[in-house]
């Protein structure tokens, strides 16, 4: 493997991406954060997919334990999600790889002053203006979560930059293809809407549901289920601090176990979907009862 070291003044992530893309000579550019690492098979897994797709993303294991997110298995519908919902994905830097020519000729330079962090949001979003990205659910790298991690310590800034990147991509899509896709005002709504859509609940299902999560996503699920005349039995939370939510009971795990005959499915309505899914299984809930989003 040939390694080329580029020494420059620290200008942030966007600056590092720009100079790396400019100096890259291979057909595919795969990104890696300094505090993460790839598993040894990563490149040999993704390169065959790049014969067909200009963009490939894969899952990661947080501290080598739990998946970063649940992903649709070997799916290529990320561009459709972008056009329909304004959703640009959830995979961070170390799970992304793209055709060099697309990054250089179409995505272009990353605004360095704005994206000193979260430049992956910009690349991921602008790429979807032009091409789809194949999603691999298999974790092919290690994502390190720690006290100095920029994402975990700057979530408000991260969300603001995600909205900015999404809107720049939407604006470019509208200009390129003479469309009028609406701008993203609230990325939390987009995320909740995309999570619900991935559950693939049909109006004909007529099951009895528990909504696990009493935040914004839980309320969004509730409104969507009500509008399709579905039955919501209760909300649930890991640590319920009140007895009800939206005029329905708010249960903990004990109630989920005690009243298992009163519901058919538990819908996870939280960005912490992986942690909640693992927790419910650890507490003895049946896997067949749990439905989690696939991003």
Automatic annotation (TrEMBL):
One of its GO terms (molecular function) is hexosyltransferase activity. Residues 3-68 form the Glycosyltransferase 2-like domain. It comes from the Bacteria. Pfam families: Glycos_transf_2. Signal peptide: none annotated. InterPro entries: Glyco_trans_2-like (IPR001173), Nucleotide-diphossugar_trans (IPR029044). Gene3D superfamilies: NAD(P)-binding Rossmann-like Domain (3.40.50.720), Spore Coat Polysaccharide Biosynthesis Protein SpsA, Chain A (3.90.550.10). SUPFAM superfamilies: Nucleotide-diphospho-sugar transferases. Belongs to the glycosyltransferase 2 family. This is Spore coat polysaccharide biosynthesis protein SpsA. It comes from Sporosarcina newyorkensis 2681.
């Amino acid at each position: 493997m040939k390694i080329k070291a580029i020494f420059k003044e620290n200008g942030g992530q966007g600056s590092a991406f720009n100079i790396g893309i400019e100096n890259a000579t291979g057909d595919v550019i795969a990104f890696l954060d300094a505090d993460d690492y790839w598993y040894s098979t990563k490149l040999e897994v993704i390169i065959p997919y790049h014969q067909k797709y200009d963009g490939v993303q894969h899952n990661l294991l947080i501290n080598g334990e739990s998946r970063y997110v649940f992903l649709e298995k070997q799916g290529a519908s990320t561009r459709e999600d972008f056009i329909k919902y304004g959703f640009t994905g959830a995979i961070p830097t170390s799970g992304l790889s793209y055709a060099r020519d697309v990054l250089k000729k179409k995505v272009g330079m990353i605004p360095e002053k704005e994206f000193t962090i979260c430049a992956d949001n910009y690349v991921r979003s602008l790429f979807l203006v032009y091409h789809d990205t194949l999603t691999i659910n298999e974790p092919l790298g290690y994502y390190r979560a720690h006290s100095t991690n920029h994402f975990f310590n700057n979530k408000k800034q991260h969300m603001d930059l995600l909205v900015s990147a999404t809107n720049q991509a939407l604006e470019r899509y509208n200009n390129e293809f003479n469309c009028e896709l609406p701008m993203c005002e609230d990325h939390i709504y987009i995320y909740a809407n995309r999570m619900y859509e991935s559950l693939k609940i049909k109006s004909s299902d007529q099951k009895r549901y528990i909504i696990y999560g009493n935040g914004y996503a839980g309320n969004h699920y509730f409104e969507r289920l009500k509008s399709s005349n579905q039955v919501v039995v209760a909300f649930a939370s890991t640590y319920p601090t009140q007895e009800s939510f939206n005029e329905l009971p708010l249960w903990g795990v004990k109630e989920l176990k005690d009243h298992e005959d009163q519901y058919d499915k538990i819908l996870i309505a939280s960005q912490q979907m992986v942690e909640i899914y693992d927790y419910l299984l650890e507490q003895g809930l049946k896997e067949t009862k749990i439905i989690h989003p696939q991003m």
